[in-house]
Amino acid sequence: NGYYDHNAGAGTYSGSGTFSLCDDPKDLHSGANLISFYALPENNSISNVMSSIEGVATGVIGEGVASSYIEDNGWIGSLSNISPTSGYWVIVDESCELSLCDAVLTPPVTEYNLHTGANLISFLSFGNIDIGEAIPDDVEDYITGIIGEGVATTNNGGEWIGSLSKFYGGKGYWVMTTEDISFSFELNTLQRKSSNNYTKETLDGYEYNQSSKQAFYFIESVENIEVGDWLLSFNGDKIIGSRQWQGYTTDLPTMGDDGNIYSEDYLQIGQIPQFKLLKDDILIDLEGDIPAFEDNGMFIVTNL
């Protein structure tokens, strides 16, 4: 249909619908990875799809479903099959590669049916596309925000504000809606070259782990801040998020405790994070009206 291009990069397309990620696997980092699948094998059971990382993966979390891997027992839980239209948190003990062989591409024009609230979905194409270009105009006003792995964007009157600017093939997304909607992605401006990874901002000496429980605080202004300074989120003395100030509303990620050891001492639901400004290597405490943490929370903070 014009969307599949064997020179696109992310895997190989045979022309018959079979897609191989054997030679181009998904790179997973230790901890929580928010991913999706635009191609799946006919046997889409969790044990088959996750077979290449068996023993390294400890759990897979979908929207309202989950399964854990138990040695000698296999995958146990309510999540039994992987859907191409859903996103998933895949929890792994160490960096690894997830390979899929003989998978079948899902048509990227597949319809999504979203309910009011938070929906964990996929992006059904390799390559990438701007958020505003991909979402049809007739449903865009009903989507208030989108959350990816450590990045987010909020809909400000049709203008998307935040660190998340594109949908990427192979990533998962929480889409927040004000009512039930149905749509298919518009892919006329899809960039087909292999670019299914965005680069996470890091700050030396202030590293933190990605958690499957996260919130984003969209900060509009900070006294005495300058472009290039950093905003940091803490729980006590534990760093749980960071973002560099770009001179306009900035989304500060804040990680919560999801029960895994990598998120130990992160925020519990209802706790309030502490925000700091890193300026000229000096940490400055920030004060303001800061909402309590909740999973997938998206908050506007007017001034700190």
Please provide a written account of the structure.
This protein is mostly beta strands and 304 residues long. Helix content is 4%, strand content 38%. It contains 3 helices and 27 strands. The strands form 8 sheets. A 5-stranded antiparallel beta sheet has the order 4-9-6-7-8, with no helix packed on it. The protein has a 5-stranded antiparallel beta sheet with strand order 13-19-15-16-17, with no helix packed on it. Strands 1-2-11-5 form a 4-stranded antiparallel beta sheet, with no helix packed on it. The radius of gyration is 19 Å and the shape is globular. The chain starts with 11 loop residues before the first strand and ends with a strand. The model is unreliable at 1-16 (pLDDT under 50).
- The DSSP helix count reads 3
Instruction: Give start-end ranges of low-pLDDT stretches.
Output: 1-16
Gyration radius (Cα, Å) is 19 Å
Helix content: under 10%
Mean pLDDT: 91
How many strands, which pairing sense, and closed or not: the largest β-sheet? 5 strands, antiparallel
Q: What characteristic shape results from the CA principal axes? A: globular
Number of strands: 27
Strand order of the biggest β-sheet = 4-9-6-7-8
N-end to C-end Cα span: 50 Å
Structural class: mainly beta
The proportion of residues in beta strands is: 35-45%
Order of helices and strands: EEEEEHEEEEEEEEEHHEEEEEEEEEEEEE
Summarize the SSE layout with pairings.
Layout: E1 12-13, E2 18-20, E3 26-28, E4 31-36, E5 39-40, H1 46-49, E6 57-61, E7 66-70, E8 74-77, E9 87-92, E10 96-98, E11 103-105, E12 112-114, E13 117-121, E14 128-130, H2 131-134, H3 137-140, E15 143-147, E16 152-156, E17 159-162, E18 166-168, E19 173-177, E20 181-183, E21 214-219, E22 230-235, E23 238-244, E24 250-255, E25 274-279, E26 282-285, E27 298-301
Parallel strand pairs: 21-27
Antiparallel strand pairs: 1-2, 2-11, 3-10, 4-9, 5-11, 6-7, 6-9, 7-8, 12-20, 13-19, 14-18, 15-16, 15-19, 16-17, 21-24, 22-23, 22-25, 25-26
